[in-house]
TrEMBL record:
It comes from the Eukaryota. It catalyses: 2-oxosuccinamate + H2O = oxaloacetate + NH4(+); 2-oxoglutaramate + H2O = 2-oxoglutarate + NH4(+). The keyword Hydrolase applies. It comes from Oceanites oceanicus. The lineage of its organism: Eukaryota, Metazoa, Chordata, Craniata, Vertebrata. Belongs to the carbon-nitrogen hydrolase superfamily. NIT1/NIT2 family. SUPFAM superfamilies: Carbon-nitrogen hydrolase (SSF56317). GO terms for cellular component: mitochondrion. This is omega-amidase.
Amino acid sequence: FRLALIQLHVSAVKSDNLQRACGLVREASAKGAKVVALPECFNSPYGTQYFKEYAEKIPGESTQKLSEVAKECSIYLVGGRSIPEEDGGKLYNTCTVFGPDGAMLAKHRKVHLFDISIPGKIQFKESETLSPGNSFSMFDTPYCKVGLGICYDIRFAEMAQIYGQKGCQLLIYPGAFNLTTGPAHWELLQRGRAVDNQVYVATVSPARDEKASYVAWGHSTVVNPWGEVIAKAGAEETVIYTDIDLKKLAEIRQQIPILSQKRCDLYGIEMKK
């Protein structure tokens, strides 16, 4: 099946972001994409100072638009971090997924908050405004089961391994790495998660905006279970496409059967919630 990743240029105007995003979703659908993903924070600038201002409840304006365009195009739509979600007085970094009938299939709240400090490079602390999610998020399609993470979640190999154990063959991470961590770890982490679990890994970033307070790395990417980069964007707004070949995934698992060779008598990782 064909996967499309929309590397959207995000402005400070929510309505413009929503309109452009829906237009690019329609374009991707017209080119045969069955699963379409939007980047982290696609409807608002990324930054702790913006989260409260742009926050919405779910359902709300942004998720309603996503539901409508998913139904119109009859696709599976992964809504990036569609919005900072407000719920019970708390804010979450939340990704929603809608099916071809417009129904919400999954809602992933970012589990691992992005709190880092690299002297002379970047300091960022999501926990100043956001609360962490407390659950794994998967959804079924006629093609395969898909696991969800958001950005910093990709650094935690255990999360991807749980998804693999639960039968996911594609992991999608809307993310916004920056100009420090992007060139160092963006592709490396994707290839590691793909090889470790023999799955496809897709990451979808906002386009780079040098004038923004937080500058995203861009380079939305798809990696196959062999660890090969099979599609990759540059820094600008674009849509990239790739065909997910589940036959190739099965062949790789047969050739190197690590999933059946794990020593569960010696070690193991389990999902607690």
